[in-house]
């Protein structure tokens, strides 16, 4: 994982055999927004991470990298 990867969204989606498109549909968001989160070009808010965790049925901490730069 690159040092600037702040979230693990893409990893969790792969582990659950789900796509960014699927998540976009669940969240009623533009797929481009989800793509930016998955590639760490943008970061979701904590409130959004909470919603994603609920949808994916994981802990919020599972979606956040614990590696330090």
Automatic annotation (TrEMBL):
Task: Extract the InterPro entries matched here.
Answer: Cro/C1-type_HTH, Lambda_DNA-bd_dom_sf
Q: Give the SUPFAM superfamilies listed for this entry.
A: lambda repressor-like DNA-binding domains
Q: Which Gene3D superfamilies match?
A: lambda repressor-like DNA-binding domains
* Segments forming domain HTH cro/C1-type: 23-63
What the entry lists under Pfam families is as follows:
HTH_3
Q: What is this protein called in UniProt?
A: Helix-turn-helix transcriptional regulator
């Amino acid at each position: 994982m690159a040092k600037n990867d702040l979230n693990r969204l893409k990893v969790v989606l792969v582990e659950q055999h789900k796509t960014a498109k699927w998540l976009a549909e669940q969240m009623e968001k533009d797929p481009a927004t989800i793509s930016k989160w998955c590639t760490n070009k943008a970061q979701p808010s904590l409130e959004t991470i909470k919603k994603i965790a609920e949808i994916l049925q994981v802990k919020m901490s599972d979606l956040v990298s614990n590696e330090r730069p």
